[in-house]
């Protein structure tokens, strides 16, 4: 009997929440990104004793990162680097993200899920950077475990009675959550596992769920890129009259065309600059093209 014949997990409402591969989902894209970084480090990172490759060296948190402001970006990039010494590090992180993260993404939506994941990674990274920076011993931190554990605990909190399989053993999701917490609390810090990062991830999920956090007001990164593109396009128009941010790009272009035509009426065509002539010519072509399409 296959994995999906028995069901990897089922929630208490008997909904079919089994994950599937969707290249457009945040889970799939995060997995792809982590695997790409892992492979690039293996192929081109070379061998360094401390950081297991130059790519990991550029991304991982070190104990002295706190005292190097130019390296504070590592408080987020560490979560996309994984140990090159053992494939199990990235394998189990991505496996957990795949099986539990897809349902969490469906629960919160793609944008909110991505914000949760990235902010959890940043939360873990900043706390780890501060704590490790105040310790005398040398340490390197890398891996998505903190963010993945945050997502896993959100699954537990949202679907506590869902049946999950821990290896081959079925159990309610809340039992798996207890296992997550106890194994990290009772782990020996000397094993080389960043237990504190794991606990920070669990803490972030707990705060998010029980305090009712919502990051919908935070701007989506892609929306930010689109805003910059729109600003640049408007800047190139060089509109001399008062700009109305509620106007569409077409309305702004029409407004600029009216201004240029008024300038021609007042001072003649020879008064136009080269850019104004080029804009008016392009605008006229666009108008004629739209009329042909509409006819």
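Q: What amino acid sequence fits the structure above?
A:
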């Amino acid at each position: 009997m296959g994995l999906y014949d028995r069901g990897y997990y089922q929630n208490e409402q008997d909904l079919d929440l089994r994950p599937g591969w969707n290249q457009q989902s945040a889970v799939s894209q995060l997995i792809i990104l982590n695997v790409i970084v892992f492979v690039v480090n293996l192929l081109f990172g070379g061998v360094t004793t401390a950081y297991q490759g130059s790519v990991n060296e550029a991304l991982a948190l070190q104990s002295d990162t706190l005292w190097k402001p130019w390296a504070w970006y590592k408080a987020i990039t560490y979560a996309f680097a994984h140990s090159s010494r053992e494939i199990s590090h990235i394998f189990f992180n991505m496996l957990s993200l795949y099986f539990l993260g897809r349902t969490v993404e469906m629960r919160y939506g793609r944008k909110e899920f991505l914000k949760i994941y990235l902010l959890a990674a940043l939360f873990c990274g900043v706390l780890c950077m501060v704590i490790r920076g105040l310790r005398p011993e040398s340490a390197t931190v890398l891996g998505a475990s903190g963010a993945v554990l945050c997502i896993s605990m959100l699954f537990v909190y949202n679907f506590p009675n869902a049946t999950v399989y821990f290896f081959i053993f079925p159990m309610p999701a809340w039992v798996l959550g207890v296992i997550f917490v106890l194994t990290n609390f009772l782990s020996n810090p000397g094993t080389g596992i960043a237990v504190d990062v794991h606990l920070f991830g669990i803490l972030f999920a707990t705060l998010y769920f029980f305090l009712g956090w919502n990051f919908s007001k935070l701007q989506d990164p892609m929306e930010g890129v689109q805003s910059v593109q729109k600003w640049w396009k408007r800047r190139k128009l060089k509109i001399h009259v008062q700009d109305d941010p509620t106007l569409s790009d077409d309305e702004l272009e029409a407004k600029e065309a009216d201004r240029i035509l008024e300038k021609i009426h007042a001072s003649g065509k020879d008064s136009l600059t080269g850019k104004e002539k080029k804009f008016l010519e392009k605008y006229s072509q666009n108008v004629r093209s739209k009329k042909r399409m509409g006819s």
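Q: And what stands out in the fold?
A: Confidence is low (pLDDT under 50) at residues 1-11, 13-17.
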